Amino acid sequence: MTALVPAEPGPFALDVSTTALVVIDMQRDFLEPGGFGSALGNDVSLLSAAIEPLQRVLSAAREAGMLVIHTREGHRPDMADCPPAKFARGEFIGTDSPKGRILIRGEYGHDIVDELAPAPGEIVLDKPGKGSFYATDLELILRNAGITSLVVTGVTTEVCVHTTVREANDRGFECLVLSDCCGSYVPEFHEVALRMISAQGGIFGWVGSSSDLLSSLPLGARA
Ligand code: TIU
């Protein structure tokens, strides 16, 4: 069944059987003090507003039987997959913090915040870059599952969310970005990044809200 979700620049046609919910990098290293986000000088508390609406969307997506994919940005313990150019601009990567080595797979800080912990069987995709498609098997997973559309959420709006939506759009996936389920350390960037997605007739996607999505999902799939 196709639901029409109110969005910019126009309604987004959503079929739960061909749509995946993608939750990008809701990791302790970005959302909690002491990790990568705060090492870069950001106020990490700005991202936590996305947690509650995202909890509602996650629970509705699970109830509706949608494919759910969680991503995590980070690197192998030996950092062989961390480009020197990235390390040079984020020299905190791999250093010790109260939550373990920053942005290193297997460390406590690299994992997803408790409130949005993946359910058993949900896909957790580790990525070395900002985009979720680069150097990952995400496209293969989506094609194998018959997915043609993505509901995209997570942090940060103008970095990993934007890069992922651009990558997805170029691969032919239709993306609905949920404004209140994303967040940025720079509120202005969040607003402008969202406008950039739906401008020019939806140049690389649609932008809606969690409440618009939840009220449009089939009955029984609502949070
Ligand atoms: N996940 C993600 O967006 N990674 C970043 O490094 N974002 C920043 O805004 N720094």
Automatic annotation (TrEMBL):
- GO MF annotations, alphabetized: hydrolase activity
Where is the Isochorismatase-like domain positioned along the sequence? Answer: 19-202
Asked if the record carries the keyword Electron transport, the reply is no
Keyword annotations for this protein, in alphabetical order, are: Hydrolase
Q: Which CDD domains match?
A: cysteine_hydrolases
Under the heading InterPro entries, the entry gives:
Isochorismatase-like_dom, Isochorismatase-like_hydrls, Isochorismatase-like_sf
Q: Which domain of life is it from?
A: Bacteria
List, alphabetically, the Pfam families matched: Isochorismatase (PF00857)
Q: Keyword check for Plastid, yes or no.
A: no
Q: What is this protein called?
A: Nicotinamidase-related amidase
Q: What is the lineage of its organism?
A: Bacteria, Bacillati, Actinomycetota, Thermoleophilia, Solirubrobacterales
